[in-house]
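Support case: adenosine-5'-triphosphate complex. Customer-provided input:
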Amino acid sequence: MIRLFVGLGLPEGLGERLTGLRGQIPGARWVPRENLHITLRFIGEVDEEAAADLDAALMRVDAPPFELVLRDVGHFESRGRVRSLWAGVERDPALEHLQARIETACQRAGMAPEGRKFHPHVTLARCRDTRTARIADFLADHGGFGVPAFPVDAFALYSSALGRGGAVYTREVEYPLGRT
Ligand code: ATP
Ligand code: MG
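Agent response - structure generated as follows:
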């Protein structure tokens, strides 16, 4: 079995801007620079045959290249605890179009539909037992965060190996945009 997700990598220079947002937050595990990404579709554990079907379906996805802007920071929480901190991705119709095409491809390859609404973001930290009050400064300090538009000319299938030192992602297949 292999753990997979579909996502977008980020340009080199962006990593430093994003790791520059790190601060002292109890319970926060900051994502290593090389792991920063935008998830388009989480797949989870699949066998080799399902992975091959998925690859074949993704190969048929084409969409125009586009540009993205990162803006603002935010967090996800549940049961009164912060689960993650992230940098936001500005709403973009071309991104939504690509994500919808990928969702269709996943279902065509036999995956169950993703029930959750697409909320594009770059996860900066995962948190354990962090109270919302502890991130007030982080949110206030970086409310104006933004980076200039950067080009997106491919999406990729990543594998994720979960280990004690954290997840190791491998960019298994790259699917260029704008082929037709
Ligand atoms: P760890 O789980 O050890 O903290 P991780 O979250 O980086 O590591 P994965 O769990 O393999 O690694 O997740 C890969 C990507 O998919 C991450 O961007 C993660 O946020 C996202 N993801 C994981 N599970 C889901 C899910 N159930 N729904 C949507 N996205 C998910
Ligand atoms: Mg995870």
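The chain has one domain: 2-176.

Case will auto-close in a few days if no follow-up is received.
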